[in-house]
Every structure is written in C-alpha cells, then in structure tokens.
From TrEMBL:
This is 5-formyltetrahydrofolate cyclo-ligase. ATP binds at K9, R10, A11, L12, R13, R137, M138, G139, W140, G141, R142, G143, Y144, Y145. It catalyses: (6S)-5-formyl-5,6,7,8-tetrahydrofolate + ATP = (6R)-5,10-methenyltetrahydrofolate + ADP + phosphate. PANTHER family: 5-FORMYLTETRAHYDROFOLATE CYCLO-LIGASE, ATPASE INHIBITOR/5-FORMYLTETRAHYDROFOLATE CYCLO-LIGASE. Its EC number is 6.3.3.2. GO terms for molecular function: 5-formyltetrahydrofolate cyclo-ligase activity; ATP binding; metal ion binding. It is an enzyme of class 6 (ligase). The keyword Cytoplasm does not apply.
C-alpha cells in the first residue's frame, strides 16, 4: 500500500467537508428537492419495496424528504445503527425516533434487527465523501459501509449520494474499499 494514501484520503475528506460546510441554504434546498426526485425515480425504476438508507448529518446531502416519500409509499426503510465492533445493525425507520450516534451522527432508534437484515433489501443508499467515475466510493474513514458491502453474499444495487462536484475522475482507494453501482446527485442518476 502506498504510505501516502491515508494522508491523501484525509486531505481530500477535509477539503470535501469544507466545501459542504460553505454551501448556502438556497443551494442546499435546491439540492434536497433534486435529490428527492432522483432517489424516488431510482427506487421506482428498480421496483424496490425495501431499502437500506441512512440519516444524513447536517452537512451531508439531505435525503430526509426521500425517506419520508419512501415511508409514505409503503416502502420498508432500514436505517443503520453503529456497533462497537465496526458492524452495522439495522432498525425499521419510523420517521420520528433518532438519537446522536457515537461519532455525532444521527442514528435511528428502534428494535434492532441485526446485521443480516440488510440481506433482505432491494436497494442500498449509502453516504459518501466522493465517488469516482469507475464507481469507487470513498467514505468518511470508519469503514462501516465497506465492511457491510464486503460481507454480503448477494448485494442489491448500491448507490452513493453525493453533490455533483463530488463525482470525480479518481478517488484514492485501498484494498478494503468497496465500489458502488451508481451515484445519485442533485444533477441526476449515474450508473457505473
């Protein structure tokens, strides 16, 4: 492994966090409306009746209206709960109950279904710092989603949600990093 790779990832993550932090409220609102439209379109196109997604942090692309849409359509929505061992448990989204997770990120509250509940979904929506044009996803460095995706025998389509300028030519990748099938941005849906 290139010794400089972790430093390049750390620097890129810091740059992306800063870009996200300085977005205006108008930019965020427009992005949220567009993301909701594209995520709903993707879910409908794939005929997904059960999805795994996440509760976005304040600086992440806001997918909460999409989660509300999915719940309103009767689609089963699973949300992750971080475990101390680096795995994710899952709970069914009730649209209301959440708490602050171990890294200050919002997490759903509910009856824990365990890590294997993810095996029953038709579509997985994951957060990302950036995605490259080959589908390689760069997360925020804790490895939860890479471990989850790496453990699945049969994986449904996986789409990362990022802002348009976060789909780049190449992201620094290590052997444990997992790729995604596509990206959903305010500008549209890209399948790799």
């Amino acid at each position: 492994m290139n010794d400089d790779l972790p430093n390049r990832k750390r620097a890129l993550r810091a740059e992306l966090r800063e870009r996200r932090r300085i977005r205006t409220a108008t930019e965020r609102d427009t992005a949220t409306a567009d993301l909701t439209e594209h995520l709903s379109e993707l879910t409908t196109r794939l005929g997904a009746r059960s999805i795994a997604a996440y509760l976005p942090a304040s600086d992440e692309p806001n997918i909460r209206p999409y989660l509300n849409w999915a719940n309103g359509e009767g689609i089963r929505v699973l949300l992750p709960v971080s475990r101390d061992d680096g795995l994710l448990d899952w709970v069914v989204d009730d649209g209301e109950s959440e708490t602050e997770g171990p890294y200050g990120m919002p997490e759903a509250v509910g009856d824990v279904l365990g890590p294997i509940a993810i095996n029953d979904v038709d579509l997985i929506i994951v957060p990302a710092a950036s995605v490259d044009r080959s589908g390689m996803r760069m997360g925020w460095g804790r490895g939860y989603y890479d471990r989850m995706l790496g453990s699945m025998e049969q994986c449904p389509p996986v789409y990362a949600v990022v802002f348009d300028n976060e789909v780049v030519d190449e992201v620094p990748a290590e052997i444990h990093d997992k790729s995604v099938n596509g990206a959903v941005t305010p500008g549209g849906i890209t399948t790799f």
